Amino acid sequence: MKKILLFALLVITLTTIVSCKKDVEDDGVVITYAAWNLGTEEDNNIERRLIAEFMVANPDITVDVIERPKQVDEEGNESDVSWDEFFAAQAAIGKMPDVFMSDSVIKAVMNGWAEDIMSIASADAEYSLLSQDIRDAATLNGKLYALPQALYYMGYFINRTAIGEAGAGAIIPTYGISYEDLMAAAQADSRQPVIGGDGIAGIDGMSNLIGWLPAQYDSSIDWFTYGANGFNFDSEAFELAVNEQKKYFGAGASGYSNYVLETQDNTADRYGEGGPFTNGKQSIKWEGSYNLRDWIAGTTNEASGLYGADIDFIGTPSVTYNNVTNHRIPVVLDYIGIGQGTEYPQEAYEFAKWMGFGSEGYLKRLEIASNHPEAGAVNFAPMINDQAIVDSFFELYPTLVEFKKIVTEHEDFIIESLAKTVPGYVAVRWTAPYNAETNMAGVFDMIIAGELSLADALAAGLNTIANREFNDAKDSLDEVTGS
């Protein structure tokens, strides 16, 4: 009952908002925008400033931010309603925001929130400059339901300063290094403590191998073995990746405890309290490029363990198997959608592009960050490989010479953010039951720990279960998209 009343209140509130804006809409093009990264009007962060600059550049278009309604619980505590409730209420009155941030393209399509914008994007020369992998990620059955708002790379950071403190024979990894050479560097770039806390950690991220490594052994599959026809846990590529990851989590893990962080249980004694990398005590660390902003800031902050450190980002290494070398780098995409039924699809598209991949908006974003550092920083690299834009971004981060190679040279990606665009992925990876006692997340943990062989899991139906979940979800999606 409480949920029903809340939903009714939201509908009434939003209906009032819509009617109050009718007079404004009669005077020109007004598009509405809903997003969770806007902060408050008083904050006037980089996102709100970028919206204002769009209206300066497009004086015939007004962007009206829809602030998320509040809810009050029985104790009088105020909080934002969930985005799903907010969007459902908007859809109920036939007034989805013209443009909105989307945490799941699949959900937006299934709920009827997103408009197909393929015809508009196909006519946009700048959209065609995006990597094919990026363009395909939000294309479902030939229809495009979202644009990339931000792109982040997954892979390995390096701290050249920490590497230099590891001792004689240390190796500085670079973009394109092979997997074997990366692991050799991790061993060379570690140092056991002389006194408590002054050690140097070699590498972490071994728990992510079954995500990206199969796609390096076999370029026809993507993150976590996803391919055009479903999941491929019965593939040789997945078996090879499982065996590699098991080395660091199974019975022989102690053999790598000198340099692989996940195999160590006394890290405070080795590197001091806190995270070894942020303390300046780790040579190679797995993470997303969205950390660059904070970590680079730490290099100039005397209170940070990274103060004075020379850090960079090299992505994932290349892999050679059966005389074929693949070098693919995982990426995470954030999306921005166009509301279904918008009266102004072209204007909504132009605004979404401005807030995301478009070069004009991105340059303005960099300008705001440079002139108003209090409004926030730019923490994602440009998605379009334009020399002027790339140079402007790296003026903010001049030490990131390896990362610049990725942004300017790399074209082959692994889409990591499958939960947003692949039907059934969440069930396949985590929630679907494998048997009466174990879900899918649990069975993959057991395989990596050596408690269950991959062969036995496959014999018990692992791949069949995964693709049943995928195909059931895909069938539902096909019904909605008319395929």
SSE topology sketch:
Layout: H1 2-20, H2 22-25, E1 29-34, H3 46-57, E2 61-65, E3 70-72, E4 78-80, H4 83-92, E5 99-102, H5 105-110, H6 118-122, H7 132-137, E6 139-140, E7 143-144, E8 147-159, H8 160-164, H9 179-188, E9 201-203, H10 209-212, H11 214-217, H12 236-249, H13 267-271, E10 282-288, H14 292-298, E11 311-315, E12 319-321, E13 324-326, E14 329-338, H15 345-355, H16 359-371, H17 387-396, H18 401-409, E15 413-415, H19 425-431, H20 440-449, H21 454-459, H22 462-481
Helix pairs in contact: 1-4, 3-16, 16-17, 19-20, 19-22
In short:
The chain is α/β, with parallel strands linked by helices and 483 residues long. It is 41% helix and 15% strand. The protein has 3 domains: 2-152 and 336-407, Periplasmic binding protein-like II (D-Maltodextrin-Binding Protein, domain 2); 154-330, D-Maltodextrin-Binding Protein, domain 2 (3-Layer(aba) Sandwich), CATH 3.40.190; 418-481, no CATH class.
Folded structure, characterized:
41% of the residues lie in helices and 15% in strands. A hairpin with a 2-residue loop joins strand 12 and strand 13 (324-326). It is α/β, with parallel strands linked by helices and 483 residues long. It has 3 domains: 2-152 and 336-407, 3-Layer(aba) Sandwich (D-Maltodextrin-Binding Protein, domain 2); 154-330, D-Maltodextrin-Binding Protein, domain 2 (3-Layer(aba) Sandwich); 418-481, no CATH class. Mean pLDDT is 92; it is low at 1-25. The strands form 4 sheets. Strands 1, 2, 5, 8, 9, 10, 11, 14 and 15 form a 9-stranded mixed β-sheet that branches. A two-stranded antiparallel ribbon has the order 3-4. The longest helix has 20 residues, at 462-481.
